[in-house]
Amino acid sequence: MVLTPGPNMIYLVSRSITQGRRAGITSLGGVALGFAVYLVAANLGLSVVFLAVPGLYTAVRLAGAAYLAWLAWQALRPGGTSVFAPREVPHDSPRRLFAMGLMTNLLNPKIAVMYLSLIPQFVDLRAGHVLLQGLVLGAVQIAVSVAVNLAIVLAAGAIAGFLARRPSWLRVQRYAMGSVLGALAVALAVDNARPASTA
Questions:
Q1: Fewer CB atoms inside 10 A, N or C side of the chain?
Q2: Under a CB-based contact definition with an 8 Å cutoff, are residues 5 and 83 in contact?
């Protein structure tokens, strides 16, 4: 999921290539804060809804499967371009870089859909502490996302040059990622497990 090119990755890579690693890291700080905002908002609502209406699990599961299928299509569709293609962006101050990273994430509907569709798949109502489970799962996602994006920021220039010389590698990466996402979508769609009622 983290490796799926989206607005956050495009922004971070663009900043890293055009303004340097420090700018990319500063922007990543804003992106990470955006993840935290979405995580808390989604889990506060989800903890109440899933305890009150466990039957919504099926709808959320199917929505999650549809979302993964959409991501798979975005990876596999013809005419896709590399997230590492150089883009012209103006140089900005650290405060503006952080704010733009935050806004890029907050204005990215993919993040909200991800938290609302995927995290509930791993919440066990019988274990209790639904809110805590959601926050822990989300914190793991944020840690993975920040780690992966930091590696991409630090290596953006080298990766861009590598892919520019070897476009076939980009196609292999896209097809592999799309196939994995598609398989996950099918697995979610056919999974008939339901959370137990807390009544």
A1: C
A2: yes
